[in-house]
Amino acid sequence: MVLPAGGLPVHDADAQVERIVDELADRFRGTFEREAVARFVRESYALLSESATVRTHLPALTARFARERLLDRGRASGLLRVEVPQVLFVCVHNAGRSQMAAALLDHHAFGRVAVRSAGSRPTREIPETVTAALAELGVSLTSAYPKPLTDEVVRAADVVVTMGCGDACPVFPGRRYLDWAVPDPDGQPPAAVRRIRDDMDARVRGLLDELTP
């Protein structure tokens, strides 16, 4: 199988993907067959490679993305035990609003809620103004990265919060859907990004109170 790998030789990319398959197949042994794990890993690599800027990071991001997708598939299908509610934040680029909301909810929840974010058309990177605004509250986006919206992440969510992505998010029965009218921070000056951050923080705190009374 030939995978897009930027500056990496194709055989190196294939070897890295196979190592990820081995690791995740072992982790999910008894839940998913190796063939299913391999399909998720290869698809995740291909999806992330479409918007990756630094392709040397692709293997590590692929491992994280595929792991989250497998967890979500297991959760949605009842193969894995569900212990806390899960919230999915969706915007267009998964670089501003949805990343901000996910980071804030994760920061305040202390593990009481599982958090995901995704974009209908993910961009290449998170704006520095967004990272800086969250850092002022002690919230880090160091490990965050834009990722595409997938079927299983929606199916696994108890609450889906959309922001500016229209009808891109599929609707499944049994989920609670919210649409937040929050401006896009991309391209905004720092003062405007802080106002968006504070609005988002208030919304996230309110949602957390509802989910964890």
Task: Provide a descriptive summary of the structure in words.
The longest helix is centred in the C-terminal third of the chain and has 22 residues. The N terminus is likely disordered. It contains 7 helices and 4 strands, in the order αααβαβααββα. The chain is α/β, with parallel strands linked by helices. Helix content is 48%, strand content 10%. α1 packs across α2, α2 packs across α3 and α5 packs across α7. α4 links the parallel β1 and β2. The radius of gyration is 17 Å and the shape is globular. It has a 4-stranded parallel β-sheet, covered by helices on one side. It folds into 2 domains: 74 residues, Corynebacterium glutamicum thioredoxin-dependent arsenate reductase, N-terminal domain (Helicase, Ruva Protein, domain 3, Orthogonal Bundle); 130 residues, Response regulator (Rossmann fold).
Could you give a quick summary of the protein structure above?
The protein has 213 residues and is α/β, with parallel strands linked by helices. 48% of the residues lie in helices and 10% in strands.
Secondary structural class: alpha/beta
Uncertain ranges: 1-8
Would you identify the CATH H-level superfamily of the largest domain? Response regulator
Tell me the β content: 5-15%
From the 3D coordinates, which CATH architecture of the largest domain would you assign? 3-Layer(aba) Sandwich
- Reported by name, the CATH topology of the largest domain is Rossmann fold
Distance between the termini: 50 Å
Strand line-up across the major sheet: 2-1-3-4
Distinct helical segment count: 7
CATH class of the largest domain: Alpha Beta
- Estimated helix fraction: 40-55%
